[in-house]
Structures
1.
Amino acid sequence: MGGLGSGNWYRWSTRPVVEDGLSLDLCRLIRQKNIVPGSWVSGSLIWRNVDTGEQTASIGYEANMIRPDDAWMRLHYRRDDTPEDYRVRLTTTRPNYGGLRWWFVCPSRGTRAGKLHLPSGGNLFASRQAYGLAYRSQSEPVWDRQADRAHSLRRKLGGSPGFDQPFPDKPKGMHWKTYNRICEEIDMLEYQSMTTVLNRLEAYG
């Protein structure tokens, strides 16, 4: 465990987050031609660990988008050795700039959604609202976001995260004005984060 601000020891939120599960982004599926408006296609989708490239999950799918008023996407996969096989309706709207915008119809709420999610413990892909999911940045306390922002800026300067670390030297090619501005922002963020954490700990004490 590192010093203050170098770890996650002060995270209290336990609300499930989108990033811990699987997600289907309809616009991305169309853009990557996994599914094609006007066509009936099938295939499989694979999720991989971003660090190792190891496959972590996969699902099979079939999408009938020939008629916008009767379009659907079938999803089939195994969840904890239990087979799941169901259709998700697809619908469209007409944006002001023209063309068609495709949407999932959430199997749980019946509302339009651009993305569907399958969190740990879930059985169906559904909207974020159906599962009460947050994005990781939303579930982090404000002081945690401040710390993460400070760590990110330290890395931008070529340094290491951690409030007890010295400021790294100015990167080659960076203007002094930019370097000083970033250092001032890091200093402010770390001060705000530590102050908020200490006040919170005093309140609990």
2.
Amino acid sequence: MSLIITEESHLDHHLTKQHRKMILERFADRDGFFIETFDIPQPLRRLPCQLYGPLMGDAPVPESEVTYRKRLPREYESRLINRHRRWSRQMTVIAGPTNDAPCVLYTAYGGPCAPREPNDPALPESERDASIAFWSEHALTCRQSMGGGPVDPPTTED
């Protein structure tokens, strides 16, 4: 079996058809759970990244700039900041078994891998302290506009 995309795959992070095709080709031989971050190959366009904090080369995000709100479809609050999303040549892919399928794309997004948020009910207790430490210094942007460099030109790959 190989990686598949289903209706449950979380594909709302500005992935184009070409991004999805590349993911299926790159991970065609995978089964079981995996997380992998890699550089998006040319000529595919960059993806937006919503993460701010030391992992992105920023200063820690101070609590004074943070709000807490639910990001649909999640039922828990996320640590958010009012800054622009940035473009990234990195992509993180998370996939694994679902029902009878050995490897389903859970999600793919622009930027590095970040741990599950502390309020995520699926967060294993063994990972809670590391998650709290990470998210005390990091936040996700809640802005829809793009910043952080030139905008990629429109393409026909959408």
3.
Amino acid sequence: MDLTTIRSFVSLGFSHITAPGALDHILFLLVLAAIYRWTEWRQALVVVTAFTAGHSLTLAIALLRPDLLPSPSMVEFLIPLTIVVTGIENIVTRGRRELRIHTLRRAGLAAGFGLIHGAGFAGYLSDLIPGSIGAPLLGFNVGLEIGQAVVLTVAFFALAGFDAALRVMLGGRESASFRLRVVAVSAVVAFAGSAWALQRAPW
């Protein structure tokens, strides 16, 4: 296994998910996290792991059987739709977050959306790998996951700060401020996703 190649692709994967051009992926991670408190990190971990599994699978398929993937224009259209659907799901189910069935359903949703986001990464990655895919794919995935961890950590700190500000505004009512946070963040990000989807519509 070529460690130099792996390190190179780790760096590429990290920069690809954290670069300004990956704002749609970053906003998806934000809206995915928007329904969780710090104390619910286990549920969030299950969902993020499912998302990771989904996009990792698509990356492998893209390098082995690229003919199975939808067109790049369709992928670019579908990615913001994942943001919109997740935002709506946050708002509709915010009162039932603790139910185990909700975590499992949300993990299934994240895995499916991971397949779409993986297709978005795939075009970039396939242009860089002329030969053996093992080491590059491993490195790129590791870099993506490190980048995702950074994005989610920043998101959780930002959401915690937003919670604190809302609690002050609402006189310390924690449940009310949390519900308002979920709705506000989800609605704003879903609106941005809707605008992107309209701009990228392939018809």
4.
Amino acid sequence: MAQSWKMDVGINHVGAYQVSGKPYAQADINASSAVTVSFPYVTKWVQVTNKTETPLKVGFSALGIAGTADVLPAKSYFTVNASSSNGYGVSEIFEMKVSQLFLLGGNGVDVVAGLTNILPERTLMGVGLLNWSGSAGVG
């Protein structure tokens, strides 16, 4: 018998974002060619560290970092500065609910995030599309 009263936690579940995030870290990612970081749960926040000598593109879709999206703006990514004698390039801590990040630009990237208890499938925005692919500003 189905339990129609039982609701799973979803993308707009306020309580999932009010508590501290579960820790997530992935170090030394090789992003010299485009790479996807898929989180086991939707994030509450993310931060990216670039330990390479080249700027790093960080986006929310493969098309966004490639700059070939049909949705304007075509270049839908932000850049994390290259490492220098002053230290590593480090992004701000972004409070965003994403299930994937797309990286391009160097070998030696760290991603740290706080995770909610929301499964990535809860961000489905179309046939097989996780995250907000195809949205303005995402690509």
